[in-house]
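Q: what does this look like with 2-acetamido-2-deoxy-beta-D-glucopyranose bound?
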Amino acid sequence: MLWAAILLFCSLTAVSAASNTITGKVDASTVVTAIGGDVGSIFAVQTETGDTRVIYQSLINNNIMQFNAVGPFVNTSSVTEPFLLVPGANVLRGTPIAGYIIGPAFTTYGFYFLSPNLTVTEWYWLASNGIHFGSGSACPDCINNFGFAASANTIGLYAMAKANGGRRVGFLSSDQSAIAEIDRAATGAPYILARLPPRSNN
Ligand SMILES: *[C@@H]1O[C@H](CO)[C@@H](O)[C@H](O)[C@H]1NC(C)=O
Ligand SMILES: *[C@@H]1O[C@H](CO)[C@@H](O)[C@H](O)[C@H]1NC(C)=O
């Protein structure tokens, strides 16, 4: 009886803390209402203040979408309508998405994913001049111009970034069928494929 009273008290407290707090199982209809359901890979970045960009693949049309939230969901009453970042024709169905942020605020953030022909592809935002995406002159320094192909067995990617434009993208390369990195020393430097180094003997 005492336990029942404590549990009831706890659940009432949780509900009153934030109306979007979920206790127990997530109701699928809640997710569908928020972003249309059928979500593939997801990735997010936040600034020092918690301002958040959530990026995901919609498996309805393979589009990569973004919505914005002002902070952790537990403290956030609404998010923006999702909007298109990359049309599905340019995105492998089931692609992994891996990215980074460099502050302060959203100075730059971006992510890597696979195109339908398994080319490692990127999209990035610069606060100074907006979106960078596409091939050739549309985005001269985008990694996809370098033509690195991932293995068809790829499940994940990783990405790391430095403020000088240095980048490291980890992937399962088609020629080595092992984890390799595509590395760039700084903005303007070429992307170079680096094979998995051998294990040390000790
Ligand atoms: C939510 O907001 C409360 C009140 O400002 C704060 O104490 C708490 O740490 C926040 N939760 C998260 C996950 O940031
Ligand atoms: C792969 O597809 C991209 C567009 O999604 C295209 O720019 C690129 O040329 C293609 N690469 C090959 C090797 O077919």
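Residues 90, 115, 117, 119, 135 surround 2-acetamido-2-deoxy-beta-D-glucopyranose (ligand 2) (CB under 6 Å). Residues 99 and 111 are 4 Å apart (CA to CA).
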